[in-house]
Amino acid sequence: MSETLEHVRALVAHGEVRVSVHGYDELAADNMTVHDVIEGLPTALVVEDYPDYPKGPCVLVLEQDKAGQPIHVVWGIPKGQNSPAVVVTAYRPDPAKWDETWRTRRT
């Protein structure tokens, strides 16, 4: 299990969540809402974990929207801080780039 994901889940449960400007743009571009990514967090599956990312720990997770469609969300925590959880970006995964599980990149 990802420590970053567990930390993000705890922060979101306490309402300590922000969405980056890029995150808002990407949500809008793929017709998703902040509600979609927050509601999908409890059952999120880790795709890639970046605990040592230079801007702070982050994790790419697979979630589902309210219609059961897959979405990828990058959640992060600012470097040197314990809060808030940040939606860095979110998008609908491209089947040409991801396998049928949405958890493995195609080569």
Give an account of the 3D structure.
With about 110 residues, the protein is an alpha+beta fold. Helix content is about 25%, strand content about 30%. The protein has three helices and five strands. It has a five-stranded mixed sheet. The chain is globular. The protein starts with a helix and ends in a 16-residue tail after the last strand.
Question: Summarize this, please?
Answer:
The chain is of the alpha+beta class and 107 residues long.
First-last Cα distance: 25 Å
Instruction: Tell me, rounded to a whole number, the average pLDDT.
Output: 96
Number of helices: 3
Overall SS class: alpha+beta
- Give the strand tally: 5
Strands across the major sheet, in which order?
A: 1-5-4-3-2
Shape: globular
Q: What share of residues is helical?
A: 25-40%
Q: How many whole angstroms does the radius of gyration measure?
A: 13 Å
Q: Unreliable segments (pLDDT under 50, ≥5 consecutive)?
A: none
List the helices and strands and how they pair.
Layout: H1 3-13, E1 17-19, H2 21-29, H3 34-40, E2 45-50, E3 58-64, E4 70-76, E5 85-91
Parallel strand pairs: 1-5
Antiparallel strand pairs: 2-3, 3-4, 4-5
